[in-house]
Amino acid sequence: MDGQQMTIDDHYTGELTADSDPQRRSFAGASITKISVGPMDNNAYLVVCSETGESLLIDAANDADRLVSLVGAAAPTLTSIVTTHQHPDHWLALAEVVGKTGVPTIAHALDAGPLPVAPDRTVTDGDLVEVGRLSLEVIHLAGHTPGSIALALTDPATGQVHLFSGDSLFPGGVGKTADAEKFASLYRDVTTKLFERFPDDTVVYPGHGKDTTIGAERPFLADWQERGW
Q1: What does pTM read for this prediction?
Q2: Which one, out of 23, 61, 138, 203, has a CA that is 20 to 30 A from the CA of 16?
């Protein structure tokens, strides 16, 4: 694949800007590389199976050339692209990246319609996305959009969970919702499917901005519910 040479920073902090080099963290059998793209500070993530080299891109959000360069620098074999939800800032580069890589795409059926590339596979709650020897569990979180999904990757050596939350969970709250009913849906799903299930050391990789952990956000759940956003 074509693309300019890209430098990967292996000192991972999770704090990036659009001008930053991508940052990579590695653990048993896998690596996660985070890149910020576009004017809305969208995060895209590259998950690589260290054993096979097979790789997954999460959200081809913007800056197709940078994403293709990232794939060329850090993904021995790109095998699929997941779109976490239907909002355009998370798929503006999707058609171009697919055109240059030829890999299949994945999204929830409820959010498939607006995407510029029809998903080759639609997924729902509990499905698995396989990346070489790795398995990422699909978690449906309705509210920000009808078909928003998160992906959970468990470190096989330590059991630590790495959770790619799209725009459903951020440092300081859940994602933006259009009305009280959609907030209630998202709050319920985030509470029951994430906070009631995953331990405090679970790392949360959101669709914009800095990373967080389930433990850092857990004390504020009641505050989020009271304020309604």
Answers
A1: 0.97
A2: 138
